[in-house]
Amino acid sequence: MAVARIPRFAFWPALGVLAVLAPPGRAQSANPNNEVTLTPAIVVAGSPELIRVAAPDAVATDGEWLGRKLEFFRGRDGKSWYALAGVDVEAAPGSTTLSIVARTAGGGSLDLSRAVEIHPAHYRTTALTVAPKFVEPGPEELDRIKAEIELKQKVFAASAAEPLWSGDFRAPVHAAPTDSFGTRRVFNGQLDSIHKGMDFRAAMGTPVRAGNSGVVVLARPLYYEGNCVAIDHGLGLYTISMHLSRIDVREGEHVTDGQRIGLSGATGRVTGPHLHWAVRWQGAYLDPAKLLKMDLSRVR
Q1: Cis amide leading into 40 (omega within 30)
Q2: One domain, residues 250 and 129
Q3: pLDDT at position 13
Q4: pLDDT per residue over 48-85, tens digit each?
Q5: Does residue 15 belong to any structural domain of this protein?
Q6: Cα separation, 146 vs 152, whole angstroms
Q7: Is 28 exposed, middle or buried (0-12, 13-18, 19+ CB in 10 A)?
Q8: Non-local CB neighbours of 191 within 8 Å, separated by 6+ positions
Q9: Does the model's pTM come out above 0.90?
C-alpha cells in the first residue's frame, strides 16, 4: 500500500518626490517609475529583489506584493525607504501589481503602485538516489515529519520587526557552489520537489558561518534537513543551513556576520557531504546566488 508523502520543507543616489501629497484619507497618484526601483530590474521566479522608494518626506511606507506584506525601513541616506523581498521559485510568470503607499506626518499619502512583470526562470531537472526511507517514509517517520512541519511553521511565523542584517550577505562556506537552485529533483525515479536552496561542495567538517547578523531561531536535527540552523535576519528574511555534522549555536543566540554556526556534513536526506543553504522571505524561497551578488553596503 502506498504511503502518504509529505513535502520536505512545508520549510543609489536618492531621487526627490515631485508629486504633491494628498490630504488625509486620500492617496495622490504619482508616476511610480520615478520613485520606485527594483534591483535586479528584470524580475524572474526565485529572484530576491531590493525595492527602493525615493520618498524623503515620508514618515512611513507600506506595501504588498504577491500576497505578502512589504516591510520597509529607512536607508542610510535618510531619504529612501527599502524592502528586501523577492519572488518564490515556484511563482507563475506574468504581470503583477506592486502596491506601495508613502505616508507623511500630516496624514497625507502618495500611491506609488506599479505593474511588475515576472519572467520565467529556466531550471534543470536532476536525478538522485537516496535511502528509500527518504522517498517513502514509514508511519513513525511520517509522525516525525508532521511534527517538524508544525515546528517550522511556528518558527517562521514570527520575525524581528526590524532588519537585523547589515551590509552585504556572504557565502556561508569557503567551497565551490553549484547551480542547483530551482532544479526539479527526481529521487529514486520519482519527481519529488523543486530544490529551494544552493548547494556548496563542502567537505565533511568545513566551517559553516552566518551569512549576516541575526538571531538563531532553529538549531536542531530534522528528518530531511539533518542538523539544521535557521537565522532570522528580520522582517521575514531567513537563511537556513542544512545537513551539518555539528551545530555550534543555540536557539535564541544572536550571531554576527561570519560567526561560525557549525560544521558541514551529510545528515538528513543527502547523497554525500555538502552544505545546503536556503534563503526564505515570508514563505518564498529565493536564489541565494542572487542575494550574494547584491550590493547592500549603501542600504544598511
Answers
A1: yes
A2: yes
A3: 28
A4: 999 999 999 999 999 999 999 999 999 999 999 999 99
A5: no
A6: 10
A7: middle
A8: 184, 185
A9: no
